[in-house]
Amino acid sequence: MHIESFTCLPAAPIAGQPCVLELLLAIDEALVFAPDVGLDLFDAGSEAPAYRSNLLAQVHVGWLPRGHYRVRWLCADGLVAQRARASLHCRQAMQEVFIAAAELRFAAGDSTTTPTDLQGHWQVAAIDDTPALERLSWHRGHADWFFRHFDHAASVISDYMLGNAPLLRGRVLDVGCGDGITALGVALRCQPEQLIGIDPFGGFARLPEILQNNGLSPDVIPDALTFMDADANHLPFADDSFDVVLSWGSLEHIAGGYQQALHEIRRVLRPDGLLFVHPGLYYGNFGHHLGEFSSEPHVHLKKSPQALRELVFSVTPDYIDRSGEFASPAQYWQWYQELNPITVGGFEQELRALDFEPWRVAIRTEDRIEYSPELLPYPMQDLATLELYLSCYNRKHRPGSVPLARIANNPNHSGSSEQTPSAVIASVQAFGREPEGRGGKQSSSLFFRTFLDCRVASLLAMTACSERGSPRHRHALSRRRSARWRGAGDAAWQSVVELLLAPRGARLARSLSLHRARSCRHGSVRQAR
Is 414 exposed, middle or buried (0-12, 13-18, 19+ CB in 10 A)? Predict the structure, then answer.
């Protein structure tokens, strides 16, 4: 990017008469973020500017593609300054960078003092064969799919939630990248060493076409950005491969649950690496993804599955333009049935159990919820929460964290993913004290989730400890308990309970004993059948 010319119209401005300062800019790069022009006016003999203004203070210009542009500063009062200086800046790799400067000098007039209250007005326009600014996503705003992912999502991730952290210059993984628009936005803004986007559906193959439809050339895709057809449940990367892992609106779509994906993310993310997640919240008004078929609040909780299916297959949807991609009713219905019912509270527990330490959180809520009889069974917090944005550190391998060998479904674990009673007892004895700085019921339940076998502990933590488990979770618990646990006998189980017993842990121990008894009863019934 460079300045081709800097002129004044008229060439000899007169005080009190309108004038225009004009710059012609050429952008040679495929794309430049936040291009800004600063204007300084100087009085005779002074090195300090008497008046300052800049383009972005008045006109929002998110980015400009390769081409030629005219930038004007219009002043109805005329110029009385002796010298004008224009400077060109932009953002590269999350930093503001000075590009170039140009100066104009004027003959001395009657006045030698520049008014500080000048009313200048900025304009910017594309010229020659450059795409008009109206075609660019930042000009169209939030109604545009490309804007919401290339401009909004990428900025929220890199700046708002990850604070332009230096780790973004390293190796980055985007889990569930979809069409690749957000991954591209992050790659261009942060300029990482490598950014890999994975998605099992291959939507990123359309990215070159999407770029052409939005005033960008496909060569804007940097060499550091690559895409892979891969599944989040089986990430094809070595341990500690990435500095940052991103997931924007993908975890809720992993069929069968996202627990294994979280374990895989933890595995490939380096210790003290950063994780950003923006999961869809099922019980909010956005999380059901059926808004194109009905604007009724919480329609998915009010209607029966049969009524919802009829709605999807019979109503003509108010399609969101997903950069030219449209889905069939059958696909919409499949995606809805596969949604994971994520809540803020449950998701936080799952992340903490895997040693993810929250750094920044942003929660968007409804202004008001109108309860109807169908909504009464649901917690008000879940209904009122629309969106969750979360960044956290991966604190694995620290004292007190879950060893990799005891994480369920860890590819590096050569043995069974479920521990025997004796192995659990040994684990508790090896880490036989509560973490410092934590207390009360939360401390005991966190201690149990952290140091016992993950396959059993994660289910108990969601049911017995937090008392928020659904009948579906309790049924899954009874089915997943192995014969080794059911046949271990009271002595082995009592050993675990005694190790956990403390003045603040008695309630937890009673809950564990109760679940063990219930599980044994379920096993006896199945054996009798």
Answer: exposed
Residue 185 corresponds to which tokens in the numbers above?
């936005």
Percent of the chain with pLDDT over 70: 74
Here the tokens at position 126 are: 């594309």
Instruction: Name the region of 94 (left: φ>0; alpha: ψ -120 to 50; beta: rest).
Output: left
Which residues are paired to 216 by β-bridges?
Answer: none
* pLDDT tens for each residue of 198-213: 999 999 999 999 999 9
Please tell me what DSSP assigns to residue 219.
G
Whole-angstrom distance, CA of residue 79 vs CA of residue 106? 9
Alpha-carbon gap, residue 352 to 448, rounded angstroms: 12
Per-residue three-class SS string for 121-170: EEEEEEECCCCCHHHCHHHHCCCCHHHHHHHHHHHHHHHHHCCCCHHHHC
Tell me how far the alpha carbon of residue 242 is from its chain's centroid: 16
Note every long-range contact of 52-58, with CB atoms under 8 Å and residues 24 or more positions apart, other chains counting.
Answer: 53/118, 53/120, 53/122, 55/122, 55/124, 57/122, 58/121, 58/122
DSSP track, 82-125: SEEEEEEEEEETTEEEEEEEEEEE----S-----TT--EEEEEE
Greater model confidence, 45 or 439: 45
Under the banding of pLDDT at 50, 70 and 90, the label for residue 305 is very high
Sign of CA dihedral 361, 364, 370, 376: negative
| 421 pLDDT tier (thresholds 50, 70, 90) | very low
- Pairing mode, strands 83-92 and 19-42: antiparallel
